[in-house]
Design brief:
By secondary structure, the chain is an alpha/beta fold. It contains 12 helices and 11 strands. It has 2 domains: 155 residues, Glycogen Phosphorylase B (Rossmann fold, 3-Layer(aba) Sandwich); 172 residues, Glycogen Phosphorylase B (Rossmann fold), CATH 3.40.50.2000.
Length: 337
C-alpha cells in the first residue's frame, strides 16, 4: 500500500499548541523513512512551532473566518482543487477536517482517536480500555494514520528546529538574568484552571530551588501572572514577554522545566530540556505524557482521575490531584540526574 501513496501530503491539525508540536516527530519520521514532504494547515498562532521543519515545505494559514460555517464549505473546495492528487493527512479528526475529506481528490488518511475507548474508560474505568489507551501515546496514534504498526515512541519524539541565531538569542536572555548557576524554567499556567498547580506551591518551589542554587525563570502567557507585584530575588519573570520561538530557544539552555500539562511542556521535550510535568485531572491514558528520555511525571493516585479529557470540569474535591503534589517531590525531580 505504501508504494501507491503520493509523496506529497497536506497535513491538517488546527489546535492546540501541544497537539501541533506532537506532530513534528511524526512528520520527521515519515520524511526520513518514506521521503514524504508536507504542506501543513494550521492556525497562524501555532505556525512558529513548525518553522524550519525539514519535512514541511509550506505552512497553510487560513484566516479564522474562513474556517467556520459556509465560508469553510467554500474554502475546503478550493483546498481540494489546489491539492488535487495529493494525500490528505487528517491529524485533527473533527467535523471540519472530515468535511474537507469528503471533497478531497486523493487518498485521505485519518488517525484513530480511540473515541469509544476514551469514553468507556472515562465512564467506567475499564481496565481493557485503559490498557488499550496507555499502549499508544498521541504521536503513535498520529502515525497509525498511515502505518500498520505503531513506531517506537523514541522515533516520534517532537522536535523544534532552531537556528543558530535563535539559540544565541535564548542564551542572551539567560545571560541577562545574571545567573552563575543552573536555570530552571517554570510554566505555572494552563488553559484550564483545574490543570494548574496552586500558586502557593509554585512560590514554595521557587524558594526551595533558590536554596539549592537554582535560578528560576517563569515562561508562558497568562492574564493571571504568578507574580503581580515585585518578583522575588532569584526569579526572572518573562510571563507574556517571549514568543514561541524565543521560549523554545530559552528552554534549550535551561537545566530543567517544571510545567503543568500544557503546550510549553511539549516544547521543552521538543528542544531536549528535561521536563518535570505535573499531572492532575488528566492522566497517561489520554496519551499526552512527555516522553523524553529524562522526563518525569508527578501525579497523585486518586480514584477520580482522570475527571475529563482536558481538565476543564469543575472539581468537587478541592482539586486534590494538584494540591497534593508536594513541592519537595518536585525539587527532587528537578535535581535528579
Amino acid at each position: 500500500m505504501a508504494d501507491k501513496l503520493p509523496r506529497n501530503w497536506l497535513v491538517m491539525r488546527l489546535s492546540a499548541l501541544g497537539d501541533v508540536t506532537l506532530t513534528t516527530g511524526v512528520l520527521d519520521h515519515l520524511h526520513r523513512t518514506r521521503g514524504w514532504k508536507f504542506h501543513f494547515l494550521t492556525k497562524r498562532s501555532f505556525a512558529p512551532a513548525l518553522a524550519g521543519h525539514p519535512a514541511i515545505d509550506k505552512l497553510v494559514l487560513p484566516e479564522a473566518k474562513s474556517l467556520n460555517g459556509t465560508a469553510w464549505l467554500s474554502a475546503r473546495k478550493e483546498l481540494a482543487r489546489t491539492y488535487k492528487g495529493w494525500g490528505l493527512l487528517d491529524l485533527h479528526g473533527t467535523l471540519r477536517s472530515r468535511l474537507l475529506g469528503v471533497v478531497w481528490d486523493g487518498p485521505v488518511r485519518r488517525y484513530p482517536k480511540f473515541s469509544f475507548s476514551r469514553r468507556l474508560y472515562g465512564l467506567t474505568g475499564s481496565a481493557w480500555a485503559r490498557e488499550r489507551l496507555e499502549a499508544l501515546n498521541v504521536p503513535q496514534r498520529y502515525a497509525l494514520a498511515v502505518e500498520t504498526e505503531p513506531p517506537a515512541r523514541e522515533l516520534l519524539r517532537p522536535r523544534i528546529w532552531l537556528s543558530d541565531e535563535e539559540l544565541e538569542g535564548g542564551l542572551r536572555i539567560l545571560e541577562g538574568m545574571g545567573s552563575s548557576g543552573p536555570v530552571c524554567a517554570l510554566h505555572p499556567y494552563a488553559t484550564h484552571a483545574g490543570k494548574r498547580w496552586p500558586a502557593g506551591h509554585w512560590k514554595e518551589l521557587i524558594s526551595l530551588l533558590n536554596g539549592q542554587g537554582w535560578q528560576c525563570v517563569i515562561i508562558g502567557s497568562s492574564q493571571e501572572p504568578l507574580f503581580t507585584d515585585d518578583t522575588p530575588r532569584g526569579v526572572s519573570d518573562l510571563t507574556n514577554s517571549t514568543d514561541i520561538r524565543q521560549t523554545c530557544a530559552l528552554l534549550s539552555h535551561c537545566g530543567a522545566l517544571v510545567s503543568n500539562d500544557s503546550g510549553p511542556m511539549h516544547l521543552g521535550t521538543a528542544v531536549g530540556t528535561r521536563v518535570v510535568a505535573l499531572f492532575g485531572p488528566t492522566t497517561k491514558t489520554w496519551g499526552f505524557f512527555p516522553f523524553g528520555e529524562r522526563d518525569t511525571v508527578l501525579e497523585v493516585d486518586l480514584p477520580c482521575r482522570p475527571c475529563s479529557l482536558h481538565g476543564g470540569r469543575g472539581c468537587r474535591r478541592g482539586e486534590r490531584c494538584m494540591r497534593e503534589i508536594n513541592p519537595q517531590d518536585v525539587l527532587r525531580a528537578v535535581q535528579k540526574n
